[in-house]
Batch of 2 targets.
Target 1
Amino acid sequence: MKISTRGRYGLRFMLDLAEHAGEGYVPLREAAERQEISPKYLERILPVLVRAGFVEGVQGKGGGYRLVRDPASYTVGDVLRLTEGDLAPVACLALDAEPCRRASFCKTLPMWQRLETVLDDFFDGLTLEDLLEGEAAFKRHPPSS
Amino acid sequence: MKISTRGRYGLRFMLDLAEHAGEGYVPLREAAERQEISPKYLERILPVLVRAGFVEGVQGKGGGYRLVRDPASYTVGDVLRLTEGDLAPVACLALDAEPCRRASFCKTLPMWQRLETVLDDFFDGLTLEDLLEGEAAFKRHPPSS
DNA sequence: CACTAACCTACCGTTTCGGTAGGGATTAGG
DNA sequence: CCTAATCCCTACCGAAACGGTAGGTTAGTG
């Protein structure tokens, strides 16, 4: 029950781009240094973000990456679903899961389904811009709501 | 980001005991058959539940396992923390985590902390008895609350 | 005494995780 | 035109976790 480095690094990379938006293209090496991530490893996480049209990569000297849209238009859920993969909390709810015979009477399935929507709502309710604001974003969504 | 079989099987075992409470001791083999879990594998998940005093195991003929307390007194969070381990969604929030240098300025840490409380609230707000009721338990805690 | 069933430990094949290595292909600047 | 910078792509790799198996020992029942 852990978010792996792929999801966390991918998200931090996107945040790094958001923090340096409007400064031209950000070389992977610089982002990796700031985020203290192995450049070669980070490099392997990015293709999925490029292919999804989330970031634009420009080759050659002076190149690098930049966000395509406004930071507020990327939800954390969007980024995690790409980099981490499926956000389903159990295997039987994964997109590629084969149907489970026990589904019709499983006492735990409703809970996992409910948890999945809780997670979706949590991650889709946060944008890169929200995270840049820091803790302030969570003050607006207090635990009691 | 998946709950492993240890947590899921442990929970289903506890639910199986809850469903057969008051019928004496439930042999592991019977519970494993009903839950379609490898008996030998399930056997390896149980010691932590026994040592925590969640279930009582009795050896010899006529023996087996039974819940020690009322099903309503076990939260899903209790069971999962024992069988699955830490419920922290990222490594840096785990109990045994070494302190992260980036914590003071990490843009994602507040989100993970918030998510951890969301998960704790979710799992600690459900008991074995709630799950036995099926979907009804979730009608009482609608998505909008 | 025999049988049942919990208890305990070691092993094992597969997958995932986190990372490294080594090349291309492309572009800006001298 | 050459070179340095930069993205892009694929293959490999050690360690750990996952999910399960095997084979015993201990304890209680009939």
Target 2
Amino acid sequence: MIKTSDIVVGANAGRARSHNRQVILDRIRTAGRIGRADIARSTGLSTQAVSNIIADLLSDRMIAEQGRQVVGRGLPAVQYALNAKGGFALGVEIRPDAVFSALLNLCGDKVASERMSLRANDRNAVTEAVRTLRDTLLKASKTPKNRLLGAGIVMPGPFGETGIRDGETELPIWADVAPDRWLSKALELPVVIENDANAAAIAERIVGTASGLKTYAYIYFGNGIGLGAVHGARLIAGAYGNAGEIGHIPVPAAGKSMPLESMVSRMSLIRALGKEGIAAESVDDLDRLYAAKTQVLMAWLENAQKPLEAAISIVENLFDPEAVILGGAMPDSILDHLIRSLTLPDKSVSNREDRTGPRLLRGTSGRMTATLGAAALVINQTFTPKIAAQA
Amino acid sequence: MIKTSDIVVGANAGRARSHNRQVILDRIRTAGRIGRADIARSTGLSTQAVSNIIADLLSDRMIAEQGRQVVGRGLPAVQYALNAKGGFALGVEIRPDAVFSALLNLCGDKVASERMSLRANDRNAVTEAVRTLRDTLLKASKTPKNRLLGAGIVMPGPFGETGIRDGETELPIWADVAPDRWLSKALELPVVIENDANAAAIAERIVGTASGLKTYAYIYFGNGIGLGAVHGARLIAGAYGNAGEIGHIPVPAAGKSMPLESMVSRMSLIRALGKEGIAAESVDDLDRLYAAKTQVLMAWLENAQKPLEAAISIVENLFDPEAVILGGAMPDSILDHLIRSLTLPDKSVSNREDRTGPRLLRGTSGRMTATLGAAALVINQTFTPKIAAQA
DNA sequence: GAGTTAACTCAACAATATTGAGCTTTCAAG
DNA sequence: CTTGAAAGCTCAATATTGTTGAGTTAACTC
């Protein structure tokens, strides 16, 4: 699928208003609780303009009043915060054999989730599953349909006919139709599509570790391994939506150069376990195997260390992020082990004297990361100002 | 130096106007010649709005009328194009021993250039040199001072106290003052600062090979080697302005892993030549040595091949650019040789079936690349809409 | 208790873009 | 050759939105 960058760029009263609305909403989200005067100062708008938009947001139930805050002299400022029930985002992760879905509220809390096996891997089966899941989640959570802000879809990349397609990630059922438009029509909702790593990266900003960060890189353990890079609060998607294909970069391993994915990925781990006759299906399985200090797993961890260090070093030097986050479909225990065992090189732009936080963080983990990420895409969009710089 | 992302985000009538002005200016630049109706359609503004802004731009001499274009039925549209003499950009490249400078007009043509040795490597000497160069260039080109849009400054990175500082790139004279503010005051001009690779990347967009591209990566041969990544027409500068430090990423070389810079950079080449007692100072020297098929040079080229392939492969897979551009302080001949000899891996997101142009391009080369890039930063800024997405 | 500070509202105002009517110029069909 | 359609453009009226400044309220300070 081709990413169409924003084309409409001219500003008029209406677009300025919706832009300002998003700006204010985002300000409220990042601040947690904040008053009108504060918002005005930090956005460069007049109090009056903020007041008008706040009134709008209140009547749309996107925000709620939170009492007054006495600071010092003067009239105590009325505080506002996001209204969790003001909007909901549907997240959908499409896999070859099943569809996962979750519903998040405006604050990023999971309200409901559901999984459904696919009876066939074709477009109709997927469409039907997605529609059913939407209805099931709405019903289970007693959410009125008109409170749905949109749907985020996660599908494995890469998008389009690139040199790194292979049988494991391919989803040829969308060959002749743009999946975003198709699903938007089927769900009767606005739709955003991203790959798993990008969605997970955005999720981290909405609910997780990256909430204070504007520029960071997320290394995502899916089946393979992916990178979601966020720069100045914007996703780096690449010219064709395939940026962050970190799995295929060459890293030093055992004296020669190997693709990162072959050393550091769920796939490589499960393959290694399989060779020893150990079956591991779920994140929980892996967690148990780690707890038992299973030898193959420990060996895999050791082999993964150097290649992962090299990859992180590359990411740091190319993106200069505030932090690198490790997350995805792995148990906490394994991610934590990796983070503990890695020694990041001193020769890196990220090794700053004025650094406050750690260079490496653990992000959201577990099987649902990408699904939650899908929903987070929608929430993120709700908070992203519309008049973007010309692309 | 810390990059301050745009903070002002709220839109009002005035900001919307200046935003639209930049949008239209950029549209004219990319189109070359274009009429009002066309601009209106491609920006989502009304003809009337475009007309008003065009009138403004005409009276500011930023654009000029270019006759009428008869297409089919209807009133032939009046065409507009940039007015080269409507504005000028000063580019300054600060080196430890000298300052290079150039003056570009709005269309990116070089109007004048000048070099000046530094009598000392301290702040006052630099300030004095920069002021003198500004005046010399204005006088030589008979440009009135009020037509200067601003100054772009290029200094070698990385900025701030990072783990990769070393004696060769360090510029400690700015330790206690923000160089952008200092120089802005000294020059009485708005100032933009970037490292050499980033500036060169932007220059390519304004005048060079990348004029049609929105997402591309520029590998820059300075003293070392740097990367300037442009994503959706925006520079990826990183959280602290140090993104693109590609010189320090590990690449496979001679069976082991080496920093790219040690294999592929001007520095490494000059060092290799020096070991054989061959002195090479300038780009022209290198060109002559290449023409003479000097053996050390040819050996260096061969050794550079694999590491460079690995680096480009990494860049492609992480950024998914439309193209990778090679340029900088090297002669055309050597850059072309490298481009000819490189074999890019098929396993890359950039190996697309629908690809039209080549994956690898040669950019601007020669000693002045960074200086011209510095000026291009200013021109770029002139065309970049002001209401940016919240950072 | 008087003065100060700060948040907030109201009403008048200003900046900008949009809309629709009308003019002009070109092409094409009869 | 005439007429009508199509497209670019201008003018004047209108709409949307944000800003400004005066006035109100509520807290703190002396």
